Amino acid sequence: MFRKGLIVLTACYFAQSCTKIDDYMLGKDNTPKPQALAPIKQKVAIKDNWVAPVGKASGSNQYLKLKPVVKNNVVYTADASGVVQAIDKNTAKPIWSRQLKQGIVSGPTVKNGKVAVGTDQATVVLLKQSDGETLWTASVSGDALSKTVIADKKVLVKTIDGHLYGFNAANGQKEWVADHGAPNLILKASSAPVVLDGLAIVGFSDGKLDAIDLNTGSLLWQRGIAYASGSSDVERLVDIDADPVVRGSVAYLATYQGYVGAFSLVDGQFIWRKPASTYKNIAVGNDALYLADSDDVIWAYDLKNGRVRWKQTALKARSLTEPVIMANRLLVGDKTGVLHVLSLQDGGFLSRKQLSGPIYNAPTVAGNEVYVLTGNGKLNQLAVG
Fold it and tell me: What are phi and psi of 12, to 5 degrees?
């Protein structure tokens, strides 16, 4: 169902300007080989607690958003091979496991007693949180590469071809669909909607941000966040692939070949913005925004004015995950299977841990524990001191 993604692959293969193509765009790794990591002093202890199998090994899920979710004492996982599991976080034993007939491209989302995943057959599947029983399955117009959003009585599904669906959470009935559309050339990535005061705030692949009424699916307002420029279709890519982060009346946004910035939801203007390019989610802390760009450079921006506090360039060509905040540390994984722990204050390395397979999905933090799903189908629980 990746018709749009295949257009990206073909166009980039023949474009003379494509000297470096991201994994997201070609579905294969033609980036330069990463340099060897310089030795560091381990300032933070990382302890292996347990490892549990959660699916089959896959080398084709680099662009998928399959981050584990922790609720109370249960870890929920979704694997590209179609396995959805609930695992006891204390014993590492499965509480329930379900093998879907389709592969999974996004999820899980866990809320209100439900678990939602998007499949590679352009469907969304809702399972019962307690035992994994299928509640309903609904078809959409394209793959839902962004996480499904469960919002009270609604389930929101954004598709790669620029549609947002509103389903009845109880029975899966389609209540409305908003058609934003999509350019012919897009990335294999997609940001998820954010629900705020009866609205769905949604970023799309043409660089626009929509506010959609949750009850009716009507477009209430639209703002241009990034604008295409350049002579080739590849140079004109401006996808909003990072999930917006909303704090009060401010949305923090990042785009591919565009900007990172703070956007006022009151007047529709940027409070600040800086040139940036990313297709990964951003992390917003108490006073700074953290971003891993498309060159695998990690940046820290002051939350109030966008001033660059620091940048870390030692992880280039490692296909980093999105950054995740853990207390006063920043965590990222890479395609070689290394989990990196950085200081929030200056971006210096505090620790690192080699795992058994590539890390394509961002770590999940729960207290002092970190959960990392690797590309060889293993879920790791680590204690970070």
Answer: -70, -30
Look up tokens 């891993």; give the residue: 292
How many structural domains is the chain composed of?
Answer: 1
Residue 280 CA to residue 292 CA, distance in Å, equals 7
Let me know if residue 310 belongs to a domain.
no
The DSSP bridge pattern shows strands 123-128 and 83-88 to be unpaired
CB 241 within 8 A of CB 187: yes
Inside any domain, residue 350: yes
DSSP letter assigned to residue 55: S
* d(C-alpha 192, C-alpha 164), whole Å: 10
> How much is the mean pLDDT over the chain?
87
- The closest alpha carbon to 136, from 106, 180, 159, 168, belongs to 168
pLDDT digits (tens, 9 = 90+) for 264-302: 999 889 999 999 999 899 999 999 999 999 999 999 999
CATH number, domain of 373, equals: 2.40.10.480
H-helix or E-strand containing 94? strand 94-99
For residue 352, is it within any domain?
yes
Give the three-state DSSP class for 151. Answer: strand
User: What distance in Å separates the CA atoms of residue 362 and residue 155, rounded to the nearest whole number?
Assistant: 24
Across the beta sheet with 369-374, the strand order is 46-53, 378-384, 369-374, 364-366
Average pLDDT over residues 157-170: 95
Cα dihedral: 279, 331, 200, 83 (round 10): 90
User: Which residues span the domain enclosing 356?
Assistant: 37-62+317-385
* Rama region for 171: left / alpha / beta (φ>0; ψ in -120 to 50; rest): alpha
* CA-wise closest residue to 225 among 204, 245, 195, 246: 204
The pTM score is 0.88
The pLDDT, as a whole number, for residue 227 is 60
Nearest to 180 by CA among 155, 198, 154, 207: 207
What are the structure tokens assigned to 188, written together? 């294999």
d(CA 183, CA 205): 7
Tens of pLDDT, residue by residue over 22-81, are 444 444 556 678 889 999 999 999 999 999 999 776 555 566 779 999 999 999 999 988
User: Would you state the pLDDT for residue 132?
Assistant: 98
How many CB atoms are closer than 10 A to CB 362?
24
